Amino acid sequence: MTYIGIIITFVFINNFILNQFLGLCPFIGVSKNIESAVGMGFAVTFVMAIASLTTWVVYTWILVPLNITFLQTITFILVIAALVQFVEMVIQNISPALYKALGIYLPLITTNCAVLGIAFISVQKRYNALESFVAGFAAGLGFLLAILLMSAIRTKLDFEWIPKPFRGIPIAFVTGGLMALAFMAFDKALLTNLIG
Amino acid sequence: MFIKIIFSFLSVTVLGGLLGLGLAIAAKLLAVKKDERIELIESILPGANCGACGYPGCSGYAEGVVNDGASLTLCTTGGGVVAEKIAEIMGETVEVSSQKMVAQVHCRGTRDTTKYAFDYRGIADCNAMMILYGGDKECKYGCLQGGSCIAVCPVDAIGRDEQNRIWVDKDICISCGKCIDVCPTHVMKWVPYDADYIVACNSVDKGALVRKYCSVGCIGCKICEKKSGEGGFIVENNLAHIDFSKTGDRTAAVTSCPSKCIISTETALPEIIAKKETLEVNDKT
Hints:
The complex is a heterodimer of chains A (196) and B (285).
Chain A: H1 3-13, H2 24-29, H3 34-63, H4 72-94, H5 96-102, H6 113-124, H7 129-157, H8 169-183, H9 188-195
Chain B: H1 2-29, H2 36-44, H3 57-67, H4 79-90, E1 101-105, H5 126-131, H6 148-152, E2 158-160, E3 166-168, H7 178-182, E4 188-192, E5 197-199, H8 207-213, H9 223-227, E6 233-236, E7 239-242, H10 251-256, E8 262-264
Antiparallel strand pairs in B: 1-4, 2-3, 5-8, 6-7
Helix pairs in contact in B: 2-3, 2-4
């Protein structure tokens, strides 16, 4: 599959939130206003891209040669958690501005299932190193797209009259469900039409 | 089989150990030098994280003071005392007035005393009500009673009584000024903490007009000026206000005020029946 194919697949067709239903916690929790949603979206994109690449390295160079691929869950969690901590330290040192933008969100997504999910999917689909990286990046962009749309809708919802039992999180879930329905329009046909 | 168990055990142990060691080394090498004054200032600040200074929380303000040279007197909650302590840490001096200010609603109009132009049905938010012909009261200066100040108050110092009037508990108020910023009619105003009376009206309409739509509004008759000149009563723009730097006796003016709109802030607050939980007054639709 070409790289463009991978990007379209993970942004639209297999959107992590609206199609695979992974990473719903930040999707509901950090989508109250657009600013923090964008910060969260970029942090997830960043972490997913490098986590996908690193777990590919760990899987191909350590787990496969030793024939212990059944340990992938625990090693991936270990590696991703350490990686996020390390990246946080590096960013804090190199670019305080970037740290301010992403920093508070990084610890939140250390063990997010969307990040672990992309690592598994990359392994499952037998991507090579670059493909894994692109897949992680694209899945992050898909997350960013979904959370950005969600926050835009939720800021509007603040000014609408909503039946009392639905206020807050319930209406957010209903909205998320409707968005997922809309995203069902993107399927394999889109991919074949676009890149043949 | 046995060798696989050994391999699994060893690889996870080694990987975990190496990562842990790597993080420990990285933490030492990449440690960010934090200015210790930031922590000192943060420990002095009230910690209410109200955001009145314009920074995100107290730690944000502490960083702002040390790194960006922010003004030392921005913390309204801590007031003069905190500003002086911050100045001590920063090695500077500040001129501060130690007078604590609190917010008060300068309107007591209810459905019984004030005429309403129409019946408002919409979201319970003063700024939304303001957009609709300046609110549902005929008086366009008074309290809209939408409760935006109640929603925005970080310490829950504001509540409403059974007649929907809004009251500020000055002992809970931390002077953050958020309610004053959010209030569209500017009926929420600063008064000194130790002020004994306030003129609870904000209407600058002429007396005859005020009389038509509100029985507890200030009509600008200047009786308070005559009765208690020493008390600092001044009538400007058909509205009385008090100059709190004057300390003369104010009771004569209070008792003789024809519309009884000069009210005490010392007496106990009426029973507050609703705080944040019930902001549903106008949600009838």
